[in-house]
Write a structure and sequence with these properties.
6-stranded parallel beta sheet; 7 helices; alpha/beta
């Protein structure tokens, strides 16, 4: 059985109550592998061949990160740039990711209303995530509805626990879908 690969990317995980809790909520799930890029590559020297091998084996991809400046943390961008090469992820050649589901699991520091044409950020979160969706589609992947948590700093411990349970259920469903009927 293939597995769900959670690519966890947070440069300050010790200070991140929410993302750390979400990661921990799924870390022990059978059929789910959590891959912490900052733990693996603190120097940003990414082993491209190893990363491509893991991506080939995975049946589904979850990319978990905070929204930083309307995008992702630097190491995730570096990972995409180096690992998702033409001939591996898209274009003529292997297309190793084609057909695999992609879930973006993102957190924001703002309330949901801030992501609105009249809100603080002036764009919806769907618009901000569009480059990730475009990447998934270019690679022939199946873009799934994102798992979004707003107000990452302000949520209570009880709500963090509930969000962790919801995240676990979402990944269990994704894992179970890989098994087929």
């Amino acid at each position: 059985m293939s597995f769900v690969l959670v690519v966890f990317v947070h440069p300050a995980v010790r200070r991140s109550r929410l993302n750390r809790s979400l990661r921990d909520a799924v870390r022990d799930l059978e059929g789910v592998r959590v891959h912490d890029l900052y733990e693996t590559y603190p120097d940003f020297f990414i082993d491209v061949a190893a990363e491509q091998a893991v991506l080939r084996e995975a049946g589904a991809l979850v990319v978990q990160h905070p929204i930083y400046w309307y995008s992702c943390p630097a190491l995730l961008k570096e990972w995409f740039d180096l690992v998702w090469q033409q001939g591996f992820a898209f274009g003529p050649g292997e297309r190793a990711l084609a057909g695999k589901p992609w879930v973006s699991a993102v957190s924001t520091g703002s309330q949901p209303g801030a992501y609105h044409p009249e809100g603080l950020h002036r764009f919806t979160l769907e618009e901000i995530l569009r480059p990730f969706e475009a990447t998934a589609r270019l690679c022939g992947m199946t873009w799934q509805d994102p798992f979004v948590t707003h107000d990452a700093v302000g949520v209570s411990a009880e709500v963090v626990r509930e969000i962790g349970q919801a995240y676990r259920r979402r990944l269990e469903a994704l894992r179970d879908a890989l098994k087929g009927p």
